[in-house]
Amino acid sequence: MQVAGRKHNSDDLIATALAVEPMKVVYRARVVIFSIRVLRDERIIIVAEQRPDIAEDECFQWMSRVLQAIDSIHQVGIYCLALCPANTLPKVNQIFCFFSLDINSFFFLDRVIQV
């Protein structure tokens, strides 16, 4: 994907997100990264399945660390980091598809929105 004039590999971004305590907060193979067009720019979205036994505070700490890690390693900002309940992402490998999610919370840059 090309964001902010640079090409970024989604597998590299997933690896960075999973390097931040992956087994504790999210399911390892259940992270999706894609880009969307917002006004004139492409923006990166990350959706991950949250483990059911994790407290909300731990999730937000993990999300904050993921945003910092991707920014420092890849020099790109994340537009949206969303956690969804377990077993809500379709089990599809390397295929783009449209699906609806019951997303618990969005983390837009510096603010949290509960849905």
State the oligomer. Answer: single chain
Query: Regarding CATH, which class?
Result: Alpha Beta
Q: Could you estimate the helical fraction of the residues in percent?
A: 25-40%
Mean pLDDT over all positions? 77
How would you describe the shape? globular
Radius of gyration: 13 Å
Sheet with the most strands?
5 strands, mixed
- Tell me the CATH superfamily: ANL, C-terminal domain
Strand content: 35-45%
**Strand order of the biggest β-sheet:** 3-4-5-6-7
Taken in chain order, the helices and strands follow as EEHHEEHEEE
Q: Which structural class matches the secondary elements?
A: alpha+beta
CATH architecture: 2-Layer Sandwich
Task: Give the count of helical stretches.
Answer: 3
- Extract low-pLDDT stretches: 94-115
The domain tally reads 1
Topology:
Elements (H helix, E strand, L loop, with lengths): L1 E2 L2 E2 L2 H9 L3 H4 E13 L2 E10 L5 H19 L3 E7 L20 E4 L2 E4 L1
Parallel strand pairs: 4-5
Antiparallel strand pairs: 1-2, 3-4, 5-6, 6-7
Helix pairs in contact: 1-3
Q: In brief, what are we looking at here?
A:
It is built from three helices and seven strands; from the N terminus they run E-E-H-H-E-E-H-E-E-E. It is α+β, with helices and mostly antiparallel strands. The strands form two sheets. A five-stranded mixed beta sheet has the order 3-4-5-6-7.
Structure notes:
There is one protein chain. The radius of gyration is 13 Å and the shape is globular. The chain starts with a strand and ends with a strand. With 115 residues, the protein is of the alpha+beta class. Strands 3-4-5-6-7 form a five-stranded mixed β-sheet. The longest helix has 19 residues, at 56-74. It has one domain (2-114): GMP Synthetase, Chain A, domain 3, CATH 3.30.300.30. The protein is built from three helices and seven strands. It has helices at residues 10-18, 22-25, 56-74; strands spanning 2-3, 6-7, 26-38, 41-50, 78-84, 105-108, 111-114.
